Amino acid sequence: SYVLTQPPSVSVAPGKTARITCGGNNIGSKSVHWYQQKPGQAPVLVIYYDSDRPSGIPERFSGSNSGNTATLTISRVEAGDEADYYCQVWDSSSDHSWVFGGGTKLTVL
Amino acid sequence: QVQLVESGGGVVQPGGSLRLSCAASGFTFSSYGMHWVRQAPGKGLEWVAFIRYDGSNKYYADSVKGRFTISRDNSKNTLYLQMNSLRAEDTAVYYCASGDSVSGFDPWGQGTLVTVSS
Q1: Contacts of A84 (CB under 8 A, 6+ apart)
Q2: CB of A7 less than 8 A from some CB of B
Q3: How far apart are CA A36 and CA A19, in angstroms?
Q4: What are phi and psi of B90, to 5 degrees?
Q5: CB A98 to CB B104 under 8 A?
Q6: Are strands B92-98 and B34-39 parallel, antiparallel or unpaired?
Q7: What is the per-residue pLDDT across B36-87, written as a single tens digit (0 to 9) for each?
């Protein structure tokens, strides 16, 4: 089965740029989606199809995907961005399964 | 506005059954695939099951295959998850979410907690 690997934690100072990676075998050939989850809340889609932003998501959130790594970039980080972030892909090769990365806890220092 | 509301969670003994529901509103439910995703306490997200917009195709995670059944009633704008032979490791918050094969999951419901314990 397809595996997505994320760092367990990323720390960043307010106003700086946070980059959260998502590794997978030839992930560049797949569409990657990113979710933000704050404590006690349901996940929210923040990036879809590698780099598109849903309406209502700040332009500070962006995404890229190439080779074996997809990246979620959060510019000008704010305290309110502190949350868990998950990447996700559809694996059509294994009888249709949808895979999540293990999640990354973003801490704003 | 677009909304998904889960219900049916609770405490059940190992080996027991439970049926979750997800009521949709604010969008054309019958045009979209639907997923169930779960999150064990303190853990990450785990995809559970998917059903195509018309119910013609269903897919399951290996961890629930043969025990869980996803279904939908488009006339009632409602998604279901029938869970049988429940195990302690099925304890989690269960979310429903809209999405098709390649697209992301959006929106999500608020979740319903299932606890499997004797």
Answers
A1: A36, A37, A38, A103, A104, A105, A106, B44
A2: no
A3: 14
A4: -85, -5
A5: no
A6: antiparallel
A7: 999 999 999 999 999 999 999 999 999 999 999 999 999 999 999 999 999 9
